[in-house]
Design a protein that fits this description.
The structure is a single chain. By secondary structure, the chain is α+β, with helices and mostly antiparallel strands. It is about 20% helix and about 30% strand. It contains 14 helices and 35 strands. Strands 5, 6, 7, 8, 10, 11, 13, 14, 18 and 19 form a ten-stranded antiparallel sheet that branches. An eight-stranded parallel sheet has the order 27-26-25-22-21-20-29-28. Strands 4, 9, 12, 15, 16 and 17 form a six-stranded antiparallel sheet that branches. β31 (about 655-660) and β32 (about 665-675) form a beta hairpin. α9 runs parallel beside α10, α11 (about 560-570) packs parallel to α12 and α12 packs parallel to α13 (about 620-640). Alpha-D-galactopyranose binds near residues 342, 373, 417, 484 and 554.
């Protein structure tokens, strides 16, 4: 055969396929178009002639009366491409010649692997929510697609429920939560990668032909990539280059997957220039046996749209996370300023030492005192003790009560570190239950940080973990748990269940983790939880339904944190971004910085102190006390306001700056950092954003100063258009100020 691409393309009309694929399909159903509106977005899809659910529109909000043309399957462009593969489906099953990424792939008991889903019915589930029922053309596999759009941000929640009504089990080899289709255009893909102590690196690259995958195969979210993406339409007018993703202008489609287990997001640029994003369970080593009558519910994949660039996209996500995801949504309270001695004392905790630190922490205005690792079992270092959750009698001869009482008497509440899913082989728990860990019998059990992962998918292990945590919280007045998770899976075996069910570990482990968290929160409504995994290894919208905050990184170097915090905020709100001030020179980079610089770097998020207060001078205490008090006064604006990344710290920039504006525009808080002044260059002109142009704002310094002729009061228009010039030079120097709207 001649190369078809060189020949005139002869479309095979969908009409000829209609009868063969879906004889029962009626013309009335063909015209079905479903539309969801919220915020500044419209999302629409419809049923095409064959009965497939097809993507129609995702972008800026359309007029209420606008008609969206019905779905028509795309033509076959060559004999090498079925119309089934070129038509952008909402949830494409593998069968019928699909060459693009499938949402669903199944093997039936008789060896059949062909699956073609057609629309059955739609059910309204609320003002902007609906369920779409799909079914295979001949077999009893049903898929319910859930859609629910947030009225305020236009962020759409999508997930799928797969049900087996066959008489035999099937194996699900791949199951996405959703697939998203973008209009044909040139795009830039933004995503976050990292490693331990180096999380939150923002990567940006053009989307070219082929597929780009970000994923975790680790059984957990992972430091190495985060389940978030943003895709910016390239702006040929951009002054920064053809692939520049605008920070404050241009169209951006973004999404985040709510799953804390192995996950995958695939961004495809198909041969027809369509961009499709598929995300859900990672199909690597997946194989979920679904018995007759059983369901598999996928995680939720959230997607949104902004026409205000990446800045607009992240502001929508921040608002959505606080209003819809976090445990205390829609109005989670700003995080207490914490003290934690981990970097100062490591495992060497005891009653007298912690009490002495608590007194010092209280003197500077700390709200919460947290005791980290080392308080339990035979935990002298990281070789022993995990799994034995009794208070170490040598370090705390009278239990935790005297310390907790002391902390309360100082006006703080008390938090405690736990790592519930782990066990050291040197522990009573492991000696008693060596079969409780993930392993393949007869194979090595690979240790990391001298520990193994408990198989939380097992009901007995799940119950043990919930039981000891419940007891700990019942017996002690604990306000907060720092919930850690310090390794990833190896040898993910589960030999207590039949061989064909063992791979369910990827789903069941995470479900049990979520159910423990949910039950603990229900039984102890006052408890607050931080998700930590050796820093930022478990940050995603799944865990954030149960966690009030996260630990973004074990790297607390205030300079490194500027770019990490910048990266973090593309996907997650500063409300959950804990940031400690620790000692200088820093243990990781050996960099020396002033306490003021360290404080201001941490004040961009939810502030904590992690330094050894026993080594502080009177001047250090005074500086910290003054800045914690200034922070408390504006904290709500910093963590809940609209964030503008004014000057990016990325790409070797020697300057950076962020601004947050309260939702009623009555206050703005600005941070500025000069990290290495070169050739005498002054700090760039700061033109603010998001203020009320006509209102008058008064400038108040938290730290630093501007050029002497800067007015103390000026209109929003002045601060945004004229801007101000900071007096900020040197190495690792920082400034911060607030603007308050005048009555
Ligand atoms: C992890 C955490 C740290 C600290 C240690 C304790 O590395 O990220 O903050 O809690 O564990 O072992």
């Amino acid at each position: 055969m001649k190369n078809p691409l060189k020949n005139p393309i002869v479309p095979i009309l969908f009409a000829s396929l209609l009868l063969t694929l879906s004889a029962a399909f009626t013309a009335a159903q063909t015209a079905r178009v479903f539309r969801l509106d919220g915020g500044n977005s419209t999302y629409a899809f419809g049923v095409n002639e064959r009965g497939e659910l097809q993507a129609l529109y995702w972008g800026g909000r359309l007029g209420a009366e606008d008609t969206i043309p019905p779905a028509h399957s795309f033509p076959q462009v060559a004999s090498f491409d079925s119309s089934y593969t070129t038509t952008p489906q909402e949830y494409a099953s593998w069968g019928a010649g699909l060459y693009t990424e499938p949402a669903l792939k199944i093997t039936f008991a008789d060896g059949n692997r062909d699956l073609v889903l057609h629309f059955v019915s739609a059910t309204a589930k609320g003002p902007q929510a609906m369920d779409l029922l799909l079914k295979d053309i001949s077999r009893e596999i049903y898929v319910t697609l859930h859609y629910s759009m947030d009225a305020n941000t236009g962020i759409l929640a999508r997930s799928a429920d797969i049900e087996n009504r066959e008489k035999q089990p099937v194996v699900i080899e791949q199951a996405a939560a959703a697939q998203w289709t973008l209009p044909p255009a040139r795009y830039t893909f933004s995503y976050l990668t990292g490693r331990w102590a180096g999380e939150w690196t923002l990567n940006q690259e053009p989307i070219l032909g082929g597929a780009r995958v970000i994923e975790s195969r680790r059984g957990t979210t992972g430091h190495q990539a985060n389940p978030w993406f943003a895709i910016s339409r390239d702006d040929s007018q951009s002054s920064v280059g053809p692939f520049a993703a605008g920070e404050e202008h241009g169209e951006v489609w973004f999404g985040a997957l709510a799953w804390s287990g192995s996950w995958r997001i695939t961004v495809e640029h198909t041969q027809l220039d369509a961009v499709r994003v598929t995300g859900g369970f990672n199909p690597f080593d997946f194989g979920y046996k679904l018995s007759p009558g059983e369901h598999l519910e996928t995680p939720v994949f959230y997607g949104g749209y902004s026409d205000h660039g990446l800045g607009g996209a992240s502001r929508l996500l921040h608002r959505f996370e606080t209003a819809r995801i976090l445990p205390h949504a829609p109005d989670p309270k700003p995080r207490p300023v914490i003290y934690n001695s981990w970097e100062a004392t490591e495992f060497n905790v005891n009653e007298a030492g912690q009490m002495a630190l608590a007194e010092k922490a209280a003197s500077i205005g700390v709200d919460r005192f947290v005791m980290d690792d080392g308080w339990f079992g035979q935990r002298k270092d990281d070789h022993a003790g995990l799994g034995d959750w009794y208070v170490n009698p040598q370090k705390f001869p009278h239990g935790l009560k005297p310390l907790i009482d002391k902390v309360h008497s100082l006006g703080m509440d008390f938090g405690l570190w736990v790592e519930p899913e782990m066990v050291n082989p040197d522990s009573d728990l492991y000696r008693k239950h060596p079969d409780w860990v993930l392993n393949f019998p007869g194979r090595p059990r690979s240790e990391s940080r001298n520990q193994l992962v408990l198989n939380l998918a097992r009901q007995d292990v799940r119950d043990y973990v919930e039981g000891f945590l419940d007891k700990l919280l019942t017996e002690n007045d604990i306000a907060f748990l720092k919930w850690d998770y310090n390794r990833n899976w190896a040898e993910p075996g589960w030999d207590q269940v039949p061989i064909d069910e063992q791979k369910r570990v990827y789903v069941q482990f995470i479900r049990n983790l979520y159910s423990i968290l949910a039950e603990l929160r229900a039984k102890h409504p006052k408890i607050e939880i931080e998700s930590c995994s050796g820093g930022g290894g478990r940050v995603d919208l799944g865990i954030l339904r149960y966690a009030d905050e996260v630990w973004p990184s074990d790297n607390t170097d205030p300079f490194d944190r500027l770019s990490m915090q910048d990266g973090f905020t593309y996907a997650y709100t500063p409300q959950i971004m804990m940031a400690w001030v620790t000692d200088s020179p820093h243990w990781l980079n050996h960099r020396s910085t002033s306490l003021t610089y360290r404080m201001l770097s941490s004040m961009q998020g939810s502030l904590g102190i992690g330094a050894n207060l026993n080594h502080w001078t009177q001047e250090d205490f005074a500086t910290a006390k003054r800045l914690i008090s200034a922070y408390h006064a504006v904290q709500r604006t910093i963590v809940r306001g609209d964030l503008y990344r004014l000057i990016s710290p990325l790409n070797g920039s020697e300057f950076s700056s962020t601004e947050t504006v309260s939702s009623d525009k009555s206050q703005a808080v600005v941070f500025a950092f000069a990290d290495a002044t070169q050739e005498g260059r002054g700090f760039p002109l700061l033109q603010l954003q998001g203020l009320d142009s006509n209102a008058e704002y008064k400038l108040g310094w938290i730290e630093g100063k501007a050029l002497s002729d800067t007015p103390e009061r000026a209109s929003g228009a002045w601060w945004m258009r004229h801007g101000l010039q900071l007096e900020l030079r040197g190495d690792y120097r920082a400034a911060a100020f607030r603007l308050d709207r005048q009555p």
